[in-house]
Structure formats: C-alpha cells, structure tokens
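Q: Predict the bound structure with coenzyme A.
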Amino acid sequence: MSWSKGFVELDKTIHDRTSFDCGEVELNTFLQQYAAKHMEVGVSRTMLLSTANPLPSGKYPICAFYTIAPGSISRETLPDTVAKKLPKDPVPVFLIAQLAVHSEYHGQGLGKITLIKALEYLWKINAHIKAYAIVVDCLNDKAKTFYLKYGFDVLCANNGRVRMFFPMKAVAPLFNT
Ligand SMILES: CC(C)(COP(=O)(O)OP(=O)(O)OC[C@H]1O[C@@H](n2cnc3c(N)ncnc32)[C@H](O)[C@@H]1OP(=O)(O)O)[C@@H](O)C(=O)NCCC(=O)NCCS
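A: Predicted complex:
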C-alpha cells in the first residue's frame, strides 16, 4: 500500500493503531496504548504518516510515526567545551521520544523521511521557544546505528539506553533557506 502525502497528528478516530507493527513491542505498545493518551494530557505529540487508502473499517493504517516532547538534560552530560558556556540549570532540549516505521515499509527510505520530518517540526518550534539540542534515547544498537548515520552523537547512558543528541545549531543549515 502506498503512503499518504504528509505527516499529520495522530487521531484515534481516523488512524488504525492496532495494525501497526515495527518489530519492536515497546514502540508498538506505545502507539497503540499511550500515544493518544499522552497527547490528551499534554505531555507529548505524535505525528504520523498513514496509508493513502483506508481499510474496510474506514480507518487508515499507520506507515510511520514520531513522538516529540520537551525535555531537559544536565549540562554535565555534555562535552566540557560546550558545558562551560551553558547555565548550571537543566539545559532545555527537545526529545524525539519515539520514532518507528511499520515493518512492511522498512528499507524504503521512510525512516530517513520520518527523522527529517521530526527535525523539521522541531526546528519550527525552535523559532518560538529555544532548546539546545534534539535528544533521543536509543532502544537498541540498530537504532543507535540509524541515528549515528544522520549525525547524532552519543551523549551518555540513560536508564539503560544510549542517549544521543543533535545540537540545534546543526539543524539550522538543514532548513534555513
Ligand atoms: C530504525 C527504523 C526507523 C529505520 O527505518 P527504515 O525505513 O527501515 O530506514 P530507511 O529505509 O530510511 O533507512 C535509512 C538508513 O538507515 C539504515 N538503516 C535502516 N535500518 C537500519 C537498522 N536496523 N540498522 C542499521 N541501519 C539501518 C539504512 O541502511 C539506510 O541507510 P542507506 O540510506 O545508507 O541505505 C526502522 O527499522 C524501525 O522502525 N525500527 C524499529 C523501531 C526502532 O528501533 N526505532 C528507533 C527508536 S529509538
């Protein structure tokens, strides 16, 4: 099935969450059970790309999604050269809290598109409220390899995950025309 034209906010009345399977139970469960609830309570936002055509039920399967949220990191986790220029308070960042592609679409460039869309979205938010970097906690080594490929650097360990970051200054050249 082909995917639709653009990323939109998750709407559980329109999008079929149950058919989503990226191969990682944790991410499937997040999308199916928590993403909409977390939007309702105002702690994160999930954007997705659906298929172009609906199921017989009228709902649209989800090809890929990303979830963003505000966050903060301790400046001590940053390289010394950067840390010394920052305030002692927690440093504001944007989190890519989740990002996944349905297994049916793996290896077709959709992961790259989804990441670029997430960066673009956060870049627009950054025009209104500033953050130092975009941060992601990698679920596994494959995810780490994926983010390394696009210029993320390892920051520290965080709850058993590898935390990676991409400074906002490095995002600017991607979208400033
Ligand atoms: C990681 C994921 C998003 C990649 O999506 P995808 O659509 O298959 O990726 P793309 O086709 O856009 O590939 C982009 C690049 O990443 C590489 N890549 C993709 N999946 C990879 C993997 N599992 N391990 C290493 N590299 C990978 C590709 O080789 C490609 O590089 P190339 O352009 O030089 O060939 C997808 O495999 C996924 O949803 N995995 C499960 C969820 C997950 O782990 N998410 C990360 C959360 S922290």
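A: DSSP finds five helices and eight strands in the chain.
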